[in-house]
Amino acid sequence: MAGVPERNQSTSLRRALAVLDHVRDNSGLTLTRLAEGVGLSKSTVLRLTAPLIEARLLERDHRSGVYRLGHGTLRLGQAYLATLDLRAVAAEESHRLMTEVRETVHLVVHDPPHVVYIDKVENETNVRMASRIGSRGPAHCTAVGKAILAFLPGDPVEGLELESRTRHTITDPDRLRRELAGVRRRGYAVDDRENEPEVRCVGAPVFNHTGAVVAAVSVSGLTSRITAARVRELGPRVAAAAARISGKLGATT
């Protein structure tokens, strides 16, 4: 674009990106409908789409003339996903959640039959949680573990050793299956003094671009602060934070 003023280049780029976004949201558009959708003339749209087609970001059917995304967008998406780091992606939402609820936030991944704590954002004004980054915990009696188990394929309870950690730990396989069904219905899991006697946790699953559960995020605190009534308020907040992290990982639902 040598010789083209910088302002004109910037305007053309913004218009081309608007065209690309519109095709993304409305695949199968003719030139006329695409021009109407972005509020530009057909000749301008033809000019803007030419380099997008060359870069394989757009395709135009030779017979029908309709536009759709090209396979170059897939390569871009794959390259983006390959560079994602779960901790980095989740960091902003984890800190935001801690600020909202003023309780410790954990991020974990599944390493069957355990969960592994890979990040922790602690509210230092409260009593510190004993967990540490790199430590492992049982999946069946932690909120993060149950949040992951609930969305695994097959029967995630089969073969699990349901060790009793407190008098509240669920050790009956069928009862745990019912508990996981409840997690799927409401979108978050609860550890009600099941792993530590004086601690309650609320956790929600994190999904990747394929829809697979890859992690979980949770809020933890002493039962004096996280009462049974407060769990109902925290649940949707934790689930919303997990959903935002999932969106950054490419999940669509």
Task: Describe what you observe in this structure.
- The longest helix is centred in the C-terminal third of the chain and has 21 residues.
- It is built from 8 helices and 8 strands.
- 44% of the residues lie in helices and 19% in strands.
- Helix 1 crosses helix 2, helix 1 packs across helix 3 and helix 5 packs antiparallel against helix 8.
Corresponding CATH superfamily of the largest domain: GAF domain
Tally of individual helices: 8
Shape: elongated
Nearest-integer average pLDDT: 88
Order of helices and strands: HHHEEHHEEEHHEEEH
Q: Percent of residues in helical segments?
A: 40-55%
> Which residue ranges are poorly predicted, with pLDDT under 50 across at least 5 consecutive positions?
none
Q: What strand order characterises the main sheet?
A: 5-4-3-8-7-6
CATH architecture of the largest domain: 2-Layer Sandwich
Please identify the oligomeric state: single chain
Q: What is the CATH level 1 assignment of the largest domain?
A: Alpha Beta
What Rg is obtained from the alpha carbons, in whole angstroms?
24 Å
Q: What is the β-strand count?
A: 8
Number of domains: 2
Largest sheet: 6 strands, antiparallel
CATH names the topology of the largest domain as: Beta-Lactamase
Beta-strand level of the residues, as a percent range? 15-25%
Terminal Cα span:
40 Å
